Amino acid sequence: MVFPMVSDDNILIEFCQAILSNLALSCVLISVTAIAIAWFIRDSFIVEDLDKKHIFITGCDSGFGNLVARQLDRKGVHVIAACFTEKGGLDLKAAASPRLKTVLLNVTDSLSIERAVEFTRTEVGERGLWGLINNAGRASPMGPTEWMQLEDFVKILDVNLIGLIEVTLKFLPLLKKAQGRVVNVASILGRIALNGGGYCISKYGVEAFSDSLRRDMHHFGVKVSIIEPGFFKTNVTRLDIIEADLERLWNRLPEEVRHSYGPTFFDEYLKVQDFTMGLLCSADISKVSNCMQHALTALHPRTRYSPGWDAKLMWIPMSYLPAFIVDFFMAVLLPVPKDYKKIYANQIGVESP
Ligand SMILES: NC(=O)c1ccc[n+]([C@@H]2O[C@H](COP(=O)([O-])OP(=O)(O)OC[C@H]3O[C@@H](n4cnc5c(N)ncnc54)[C@H](OP(=O)(O)O)[C@@H]3O)[C@@H](O)[C@H]2O)c1
Hints:
The chain is of the alpha/beta class. The protein has a single domain, classed as NAD(P)-binding Rossmann-like Domain (Rossmann fold, 3-Layer(aba) Sandwich). It is built from 13 helices and seven strands. The protein has helices at about 10-45, 65-75, 85-95, 110-125, 150-180, 200-215, 240-250, 255-260, 265-280, 285-295, 310-320, 325-335, 340-350, and strands at about 55, 80-85, 100-105, 130-135, 180-185, 225, 305. The protein has a seven-stranded parallel beta sheet with strand order 3-2-1-4-5-6-7, sandwiched between helices. The N and C termini lie far apart (about 70 Å). The structure holds NADP nicotinamide-adenine-dinucleotide phosphate. NADP nicotinamide-adenine-dinucleotide phosphate binds near residues 59, 84, 105, 108 and 232. This is Retinol dehydrogenase 1. Keywords: Membrane, Oxidoreductase, Transmembrane, Transmembrane helix. InterPro entries: NAD(P)-bd_dom_sf (IPR036291), Sc_DH/Rdtase_CS (IPR020904), SDR_fam (IPR002347).
């Protein structure tokens, strides 16, 4: 039997290699930790004189807008909260300090936007507007594309995208004056289109508009952040509203189209929706308002915020996967229309069910 020769030189070389590889690993770990600490410290710097700054927020009757208006008001910021209804404005005023002002605003009405800009111009004076949160939005109807008519798309796009663009354009001169911030509320549905209707399209549009706005306004000191929340319990995700609207769409479909989905499809679709929304929707909407607050008050706001565990761990990673994997996931999740079963059976040459 022959034993390999182990010389002192070999041991020395192995020892040096071990030290070097450990040294390299240690260097990497130390660098990563140092970068994380530096990033955390940079992230925590807050702008000065918040009590001298004005922030305009749309859609403050309920949900994220209502919460962030009260939150920023408590921080001493001059909040101008735009509400869609008079009642929404009165309720918010009653829950805030006398510093908070409300205005009525319908983002689909140009005159209403101009009136809100005029009101804000008088309030902010020479300082200009520090922050604009484009939060107003609506989601219903959402559902299979074939169930929609053109007006269903337009209704959503008018509020979520065209309204947001018009509000931003009209406030830009005041924002430039203050070298302020724009915070646009998109959604993870602006990164991955999980259902039909105008909502995902509108939020993809908000993402694109915000990216170009950020690059264009960078030279003027105006910063733009995008909020991409996962699913949260607000009016936008209220199942009774979504389901009543879905039923309206289903009932107005021509008999022949409904027949192609089969008698059980609608109920199965609602069951899947109830189950997934129940599983995903978080009641802690402060995760979203805290991101909005950070985007407006941090010295170095982030470009994108993705509040919610589902956004961070599920939807954003999934949005980077190849389309066929996402298609497969959705196909497993959603019920199958009757006609698909027939077509599939024909393809594989068996009797259709
Ligand atoms: N909840 C979620 O899971 C989720 C996830 C991602 C993104 N978002 C987005 O977050 C934003 C805020 O929604 P939310 O979840 O807080 O729901 P919400 O409570 O329904 O807030 C939306 C607000 O917008 C208002 N609004 C509707 N149409 C308007 C119009 N034409 N002009 C002005 N205001 C109008 C609503 O008023 P009324 O209540 O009187 O109709 C409401 O106050 C929306 O852009 C939504 O798309 C929500």
